[in-house]
């Protein structure tokens, strides 16, 4: 912490004038940011909770107070497929992002070990992080296109054509979900390698050298030295990536459109779609109910990771 | 990586001196697979490029070969029919406005909270820290209601207001950066009679110049690529990302070549941007994160 300036001029009336000027400066600098924050963050989040108890009355077109949204939520959860399906998918993509983190850790290790060519690969792997998701999902879709896509051509070429679903990738439930999971890993490693690689580059090299002199191979080096030493960063990456369960929908919208037959929708997809159809009160209820269920899940995961961290000595 | 000093004094980590032969072989094999992966990330753009010079019939017959009679017809068509120039302009205007506004307010707020003690300072800082963890998707419906109710929907000023939040990821970084600058620098100026505003603009901001520029670059890219908010709140003025997504129906109607040409046109400026700013983008992602 640095020392914060305190005024020490000679005369008292100058102090008070300076103080007033300083107070004015602080107010001017903070007024708009705080106002914006109050409206677009605090009010909006507060209103999301309020909205779950409201709806539009169809006859009068007025806002009414009601618990109908909640009753609808639990009815749909118990009797209809859509919500259950969406919750399952959100969790699936969250787990997929945990897998992405692990794959990225392994890749970051090979980058750290300076496998030949990694300087070039690092720049290329980062491309999806700087090119619009609209463009990357589009080129991805054309890779898997049944008529003009390269993926099917390669699979058929190496004798794996039987893997291609009969209705095409986007036409089958498993195919569509696979395409989404594969996409996240395909475009996601670059960013994660950068973060995890940054942590690895901070490892004290003498630790590695001693281990090396003791004849520790790459497998043990990775699991017993690198992973424990970068655990704090890895933990943040795992949690941050798992939090995708709240937000994952753009990829769904742009690649599968939620299909086939609503099977690849996620919670965030439903919220966005309902907002688009002006079902804002219902969308809000989905969001809040899901948060109530998912936030403890994240906290539990965090607790588990911290336990592991404590065992490793952090 | 960043062990330049170690490089000279002793063999660096993973150097050949310390590396057994079988590990070198393993790393070469790994490198081969890493290369295939890298190729898979670039090839799709090569595919778009070669197909954008073909006719649509040729694309369907020979999707992987070079054009037999390359032509720029698709590119002409894109500029004449898709309004891509207007999308570029919309993107540019919106991105510049959002970046400038959000960076301006972030720097102001981060500076004041870092450098001045006043009642509520710590409360505000902690509030911002905690709020950063709340996912935004659940508040989308109420944000939409707010935008629609206040006639900000579809307006330039509405988009700026929505996106000029000062307390994003780079706020925390700039806050700690300003904290790290000793106040001594300002003291002599203060003796010369400089007020707080002058100190902020003439002394502190120049000292934090590099960080501010880097975050400006990162934000610019983030806003340029943003699809979600413009598609919801600014769809009447399609920016590039929204316009391209809308064009996907063109490909569904068989206009592959034209659609691919539009993609190529859209991706070229970003690639140039990446070529120029690749270093600051990647090094600062490690520290501050890409997301706003």
List keywords for this structure.
heterodimer; A: 314 residues; mainly alpha; MetI-like fold; two-stranded antiparallel ribbon; 2 strands; globular; B: 292 residues; 74% helix
Helix content of chain B: over 70%
- Given helix and strand content, the structural type of chain A is mainly alpha
Strand content of chain B: under 5%
CATH topology of chain A: MetI-like fold
- The CATH superfamily name of chain A is MetI-like
Describe this structure in words.
The complex is a heterodimer of chains A (314) and B (292). Chain A has 314 residues and is an all-alpha fold. Chain A has one domain: MetI-like (MetI-like fold, Orthogonal Bundle), CATH 1.10.3720. Chain A has helices spanning 12-51, 68-79, 81-112, 118-125, 127-130, 133-143, 150-157, 173-200, 205-213, 218-229, 231-242, 244-247, 250-256, 267-276, 280-311, and strands spanning 54-56, 63-65. By secondary structure, chain B is mainly α. Chain B is 74% helix and 0% strand. Residues 1-11 of chain B have low confidence and may be disordered. Classes of the chains: A mainly alpha (314), B mainly alpha (292). Chains A and B meet through α1, α3, α4, α5 and α6 of A and α2, α5, α6, α7 and α11 of B.
Task: Give the topology.
The complex is a heterodimer of chains A (314) and B (292).
Chain A: H1 12-51, E1 54-56, E2 63-65, H2 68-79, H3 81-112, H4 118-125, H5 127-130, H6 133-143, H7 150-157, H8 173-200, H9 205-213, H10 218-229, H11 231-242, H12 244-247, H13 250-256, H14 267-276, H15 280-311
Helix pairs in contact in A: 2-3, 3-8, 3-11, 3-14, 4-8, 6-13, 8-13, 11-15, 14-15
Chain B: H1 4-9, H2 21-52, H3 56-61, H4 73-81, H5 84-115, H6 121-131, H7 140-149, H8 156-163, H9 169-180, H10 184-191, H11 196-207, H12 209-225, H13 228-233, H14 240-252, H15 256-288
